[in-house]
Amino acid sequence: MTWLVTGGAGYIGAHVAHAMVDAGLDVVALDNLSSGRRGFLPDTVPLGWVSVTDQDDVRDVMEENAITGVVHLAAFKYAGESVKRPLHTWRQNLDGTLSVLGAMQDLGIDRIVFSSTAAVYGTPDVDLVTEETPTHPESPYGSSKLAAERAIVEQAAARRSAGAPLRHTALRYFNVVGSSAPGVYDSSPHNLFPLVMDALSRGDAPRIFGTDYDTPDGTCVRDYVHVADVAAAHVVAAQALDSGEDLRTTYNLGSGTGTSVREIVDACIEAAGVDVAPVLTGRRPGDPARIVASGRRASHDLDWRMRHTVRDMVDSAWAAHPAAGGPARG
Ligand SMILES: NC(=O)c1ccc[n+]([C@@H]2O[C@H](COP(=O)([O-])OP(=O)(O)OC[C@H]3O[C@@H](n4cnc5c(N)ncnc54)[C@H](O)[C@@H]3O)[C@@H](O)[C@H]2O)c1
Ligand SMILES: O=c1ccn([C@@H]2O[C@H](COP(=O)(O)OP(=O)(O)O[C@H]3O[C@H](CO)[C@@H](O)[C@H](O)[C@H]3O)[C@@H](O)[C@H]2O)c(=O)[nH]1
């Protein structure tokens, strides 16, 4: 059994690769290093340096490494940016998934864990999003991820009819933060945690986008989950598929608890031990006011638990940040 982790040199993918290796699984990574770093991966994990959008290249990597299962994380992940770059987003997220599915079909690979997102739900009008909550993506990012989920389901149906079943699941992560793998951190130029930490480490004030939302403190509320817990759910999913179990089509990886941007920024400032007030600016386009999920289904089937607090998330993210003494590898 050898698992291919696409996007394995990225922030979450590298955590998944480390967790799978630690669990005794054989892992190969595939990444074009557009935002990932070779140094994030364990040294023992081979890297196929190709794009998921090139089906022939993907198939070559799979064939050369006798891949038996795929965790597909490679994607363009920025909801706000995707509004400005819809074609790029659809190419990376949908075309990339179709290439992966095509290469898997060519080689008869029969199991896939797909990296999906809370962004498929848009702005839900429920306190706790479940997998049954209607999907209304509000950005090319969310739409392309939902389309990729659908492509996997339809391809599985076709393969079942053809007598070559594809077992699959999509994990819809909420806001993934923190760090647990050595030297691996979120270097994203658009997400809250890295932006706040970058600003604080330069001695600048972090920015809060929007203070007039219909939320308790006026700032957006999100469901923050620790990347170590997210990675652990992938290990359980891969092991379940390896042992022939069928999983549900979708699982939310959420905590059931909402935390505001203001609370996160204050916690980061406190952890940094600096005396600075955030700059309050206008709303960022495409941001839902509040989205918080129930992780009940995943806790039942994938041993999904929040083993970390928001404080752990902030502290571990700081510890891994290059400016806070973490090793900057690349
Ligand atoms: N970070 C979050 O909070 C969050 C939440 C929900 C879902 N997700 C999903 O998790 C996955 C990983 O996100 P991340 O936070 O680690 O982002 P990331 O940008 O660190 O990782 C993405 C990885 O994919 C690689 N990649 C991008 N396009 C590629 C291509 N065409 N071919 C090969 N490799 C390519 C990048 O180089 C990078 O290593 C994405 O699918 C994202 O949509 C992330
Ligand atoms: O400097 C900053 C950066 C962000 N924010 C706000 O912080 C919140 C969270 O933003 P961000 O960290 O960019 O996360 P999301 O836009 O919620 O999206 C993340 O979480 C989604 C799942 O919920 C994933 O699908 C996406 O890939 C991932 O980028 C939003 O209200 C932002 O407006 C600020 O106020 N200041």
UniProtKB/TrEMBL annotation:
Enzyme Commission designation: 5.1.3.2
Domain NAD-dependent epimerase/dehydratase: 3-254
GO molecular function, one term: UDP-glucose 4-epimerase activity
Catalytic activity annotation: UDP-alpha-D-glucose = UDP-alpha-D-galactose
Coiled-coil region list: none
InterPro entries noted in UniProt: Epimerase_deHydtase (IPR001509), NAD(P)-bd_dom_sf (IPR036291), UDP_G4E (IPR005886)
Keywords: Carbohydrate metabolism, Isomerase, NAD
Cofactor: NAD(+)
Alphabetical list of Pfam families matching this protein: Epimerase
Organism superkingdom: Bacteria
Top EC category: isomerase
Pathway membership: Carbohydrate metabolism; galactose metabolism
Family indicated by similarity: Belongs to the NAD(P)-dependent epimerase/dehydratase family.
PANTHER family the UniProt entry points to: UDP-ARABINOSE 4-EPIMERASE 1, UDP-GLUCOSE 4-EPIMERASE
Protein name as catalogued: UDP-glucose 4-epimerase
Natural source organism: Demequina muriae
Gene responsible for this protein: galE
